Amino acid sequence: MMEALEWAAKRGVREVVIRYDSQYAACMTRGEWKAKVNKVLVDQCRKALGRAEGKGCRVGWMHVKGHSGDKWNDRADRLADEGVGGAPGGEDGGGGSAAEGTGGTGGPGRVRGIVPDFRAKGGQAGPREEPEARVGGGVRWVTYQQTTTGRVEKALTRFGVLNIPTPKQPMAAPELRRRAKGLMARVRGEAVRGEVSMARAAGASGALAEAAAGLASAEAQRREIARGRRPDVVMRVDCDINTEGLEAYAAGGGGGAAGTKAWRQVEAVVAKAKEVGPGRARLRIEYAYSPMGRGLVEAGHCTGSRVYAVGVDPFKGWTKGLRGAAMHDMGWECDDDAAFVAARGAMVPGGSRITKKFIEYREEILAKVGDRLFGAHGSEVARREWVKRIFAAYDNDATLEGWAKKTQGEHGGRRMRGMRLWVGEAAGGRGEEFVPEEYWKAQQDSTEWMWENAGEDLREYVTEARPRATEKARKGLWKSYVQQEAEAAGREAKVRWAREEGVTVQSIQHDCVIVGRVGPDAADALEGAAVAEEMSRAVTEAVGYEVTVKSKWCEEAGAIVWAD
Known about the structure:
This protein is α+β, with helices and mostly antiparallel strands. The chain has four domains: 2-96, no CATH class; 148-229, Helix Hairpins (Orthogonal Bundle), CATH 1.10.287; 233-338 and 476-560, no CATH class; 342-465, no CATH class. It is 50% helix and 11% strand. The protein has helices at residues 2-11, 23-30, 39-54, 71-83, 90-93, 98-102, 148-154, 158-161, 173-192, 198-214, 218-229, 243-251, 259-272, 291-298, 320-327, 339-347, 352-360, 362-374, 380-395, 436-452, 456-465, 471-501, 525-543, 557-560; strands at residues 15-20, 58-63, 233-242, 274-277, 280-289, 307-309, 332-336, 421-423, 432-434, 505-509, 512-515, 549-553. The strands form four sheets. Strands 3, 4, 5 and 6 form a four-stranded antiparallel sheet that branches. Strands 10-11-7-12 form a four-stranded antiparallel sheet, with helices on one face. Strand 4 and strand 5 form a beta hairpin. The longest helix has 31 residues, at 471-501.
């Protein structure tokens, strides 16, 4: 791109159209994105654009889908592959060979003396299967109010109906009947108070009696216990991997500090994948709830929970750069903005004002707290990350100054206590005060509120599931899982939206969902805005409170180097 602009400037060309497949390269050159790596090269590209336009050249931009059979795009890729060992200028390429930059012997794909083999060896991939979104999700205290009757109706197993965490050994039948009778009494009380209808109460009582009778024999209990030990897959995702992106990352020296072990791990993962086409491989990943999350769902306490890869997570331990290379140019990464904070603000009446203030001015707060605590130590990005971790710890009930004992930037003994910020002026308003200590206290109070309003069934279940835990630990555990319920409702809404729109789901992680190319002009900024807007609407409707989904094209700045 830089060479093309220099050519146009030197020859006095009046009009030129840059046909690019890399949104990253185009946005960086136009100054629309901020460079975090390749800064020298980005600066050179921007100066080349300025020289061309300064000489009266009108520069147009047109996106070309990569690896789509376009004659000239394919030729550019071949030329880039040939020239990867001698990238022009810049801090990443230098003036020497790839061997000088990576410690290897030069040539594409060579990293620290090894040549990674990113070939899929699992055979040819079959037709793609899209994940099914679960129905019936909700968010406690927002879209539904829990009752014993409602919990029994949602329960998925007999032990779950009886509000019993799946035991390791069979229980005595009289104890099961005693549990059922106690829960029936609660159901009757709900009907008498008018909280549920008589018909629903009768149905719940019948389900409790049936569960106790169905587990009366030790053999029946052993079958249910054995079933509980097997993974219960709740979602399957066909995850496409950009092997060309990984090869380009390796060729540019990316991830060199990770060492040979990291590359061998990536090779092993890709080797198990199936080939989709040139530069593409596919892994089918199965997801399930954690044991505690599964138990809470099966007992009807939650409608969903966070999901984890069954067995060994194939991407566990991968650096951000490696993940970026694997997902490069694959689609839109759609993530909720301040997911747990927003959920908690909707669930808990107290502290909602300061929580909403934190969400509204989050970036400004993170920046100002970073400046107050760490001064000029570390980069702006590093300070933001440190402060983000501090507030995340507050969300999980850490002490006010506990962060200072952890590995953070140099804070010079500065503390959160007593800090007062003025925020909102940059947004065009009059501004208002934000006190971090008040936010911290609101999170402590929210934990107490969630436990007190969880109901007897939930408190009994968590106590029985974690008999050795302190009450504080039990409260924190419940807070985490009830927020995961909101996360799950949002995740399912994103998957459901993708299926309705005919868009592929490439990967999931917590509330983040990566969806494939939507329209013919992938990576177009307007398309990204439309995806974010539509997903925000779908998630907001599902969870019952306002959620802002942010979309970002899968093109990690540090993952590409010279790929394009």
